[in-house]
Design goal:
Elements: H1 7-30, H2 36-39, H3 50-60, H4 65-74, H5 79-90, H6 95-104, H7 117-134, H8 142-152, H9 161-164, E1 169-172, E2 178-179, E3 184-187, H10 189-196, H11 210-215
Helix pairs in contact: 1-7, 3-5, 3-6, 3-7, 7-8, 8-10
């Protein structure tokens, strides 16, 4: 009998988690020598410092679907309150402690409920939330960035990317990728991803009439 098991899909998921582990390791290395003032830098996430953002990434790597549902319910179904509790739990007494906790989850495959690509997106976007304000440049795997943007462009869940980019043509300048219709906003794939997830700082990397449209949205 022919084996009809979805082997390519299993391989893609395995490769995704390998990418996540590799990128967590790269981020930890980039943050190893930060000063105290740098840890207190405002990240691209409102109300989160660089220190907070890393604690959030650690928290997410500890959460299972049952724990997520229980934690969300105990937070009054406020995702913001739930996230803050996770940050408070995993934000160590010192940046060094927080960084070590992040290193400890480098190979974790735990995650809240949702499509697997969400966790690759969480890693890339939050890593940029941290790196960009610190002026740290990093080259992410191009296929991973594309996979995340292809996923987010059709989703409004939590992040609202589909609604945010509606009526605008997004065109990557560093690879063959285009999406949407309307006035064009063009730039690097990573900047398109960050724009789609509401990071307005990335709009400065884009050109075209569509940039003004995107800038007017949350």
């Amino acid at each position: 009998m022919r084996d009809r098991r979805p082997r390519p899909r299993v391989r893609v998921v395995a490769d995704m988690w390998a990418t996540i582990a590799s990128e967590r390791g790269a981020l930890a290395k980039d943050l190893a020598d930060l000063s105290g003032d740098q840890w207190a830098t405002q990240s691209l996430c409102p109300d989160w410092t660089v220190h907070d953002a890393l604690a959030h990434m650690t928290s997410t790597a500890h959460v299972t679907p049952p724990a997520f549902l229980f934690g969300l319910a105990s937070s009054g179904f406020s995702f913001e309150r739930f996230s803050r509790k996770g940050i408070e739990r995993w934000r160590g007494d010192s940046p060094a402690q927080t960084l070590q906790s992040f290193r400890d989850v480098q190979h974790s495959r735990k995650h809240p409920p949702g499509p697997n690509t969400t966790w690759l997106g969480e890693l890339i976007v939050h890593a940029e939330d941290i790196r960009r304000p610190l002026g740290i440049r990093h080259v992410y795997p191009a296929d991973a960035v594309r996979q995340v943007l292809d996923f987010y462009k059709g989703s409004n869940a939590l992040i609202g990317t589909k609604r945010r980019i509606d009526g605008v043509t997004l065109r990557a300048t560093d690879t063959d990728w285009t999406h949407g219709s309307g006035p064009e906003a063009s730039g690097p794939m990573l900047s398109l991803l960050l724009t789609g997830t509401g990071r307005k700082a990335a709009l400065d990397d884009l050109t075209g009439e569509g940039v003004a449209v995107l800038r007017s949205r949350g």
